[in-house]
Write a structure and sequence with these properties.
single chain, about 350 residues, alpha/beta, Isopropylmalate Dehydrogenase, ten-stranded mixed sheet, 12 strands, about 20% strand, binds 1,4-dihydronicotinamide adenine dinucleotide, binds magnesium ion
Length: about 350
Amino acid sequence: MREYRIAAIPADGIGPEVIAAGLQVLEVLAERCGNFAISATIFDWGSDYYKKHGEMMPSDGLEQLKSFDAIFFGAVGAPDVPDHITLWGLRLPICQGFDQYANVRPTKILPGITPPLRNCGPGDLDWVIVRENSEGEYSGHGGRAHRGLPEEVGTEVAIFTRVGVTRIMRYAFRLAQSRPRKLLTVVTKSNAQRHGMVMWDEIAAEVAREFADVTWDKMLVDAMTVRMTLHPKSLDTIVATNLHADILSDLAGALAGSLGVAPTANIDPERRYPSMFEPIHGSAFDIAGKGIANPVATFWTAAQMLEHLGEPEAAKHLMQAVERVSGAGILTPDVGGTATTEDVTAAVCQAIKGANIL
Ligand code: NAI
Ligand code: MG
């Protein structure tokens, strides 16, 4: 029997609520499948840890995580700690330190969920957004001079490298090729940003030649928001920079019904390091402690994790259970229901076991 060692980092706000639900579901799933086991180690890093120790994780944090098969991450963010500290103190060092350069964000409308778009139901919106996760606008390059003075300057430099763009482009083309429609949209802003973004377009055309069976097109990011909203069916796989894909995937989450159902995987495709799986949403302190956080994004990212670990059957079984539960109307308030986190989790566990869920 295979045993997967998972590092769970629930962190802040609703993070611990949804990660607990995710671990519970994984355990029931492993029992049901019978051919693998999950052994989870929980790390107490995050904003509370920061308030005690002055850092979001210990300085040898990455060393501690390195030997795990995958990382299962909740969310960071606390009302009384600046966001750039929580983000740059925990999540980004893991993504960057483990070179998780492909951020993969599937979106579809789950059964039972009414999306905000008229004339758009399950099947009409089925996308995967691939976000460049190691450089671009979030490379941390820049600085401030003359702080506090009238002539103060702040720069935030976007870094695009041929190596970085080529590898994410190959990943996106390969992913598009593996999906039935074999359709990729490359998003840039190469009209206004005439250096790095033009290089993206050029590298996209180069890599496209390796994938003759993939149909691809280009969009400017502003026009892309319109196409996503008005012609969702025309899209399948999407690749964009760190910043652009960050924004587009929040839009995608909203168009699919709620951020509470949107998952994401931070992948090291070369498998040199553990990859990290998390819901897209943040710590949502407006609803933390109320027991109503939607655990579906976390279940979906658990399915991504199983797929990455080499358990595609288990991943599929989990998603079928999630869809059976949403289809039965067992939904948290963010997607129009009255169920609690616990209700949804219990129903998904029942569905995994093949039992009646109502
Ligand atoms: P958020 O994603 O935490 O919440 C936005 C809205 O969506 C809130 O009204 C929230 O209640 C709702 N929501 C989010 N997830 C939900 C779920 N699972 N179920 C039901 N409703 C859900 O974003 P916000 O409010 O902008 O940020 C809160 C904190 O989270 C900030 O400190 C921010 O920096 C941090 N954050 C962290 C992220 C991460 O850890 N990857 C990502 C986004 C934000
Ligand atoms: Mg975001």
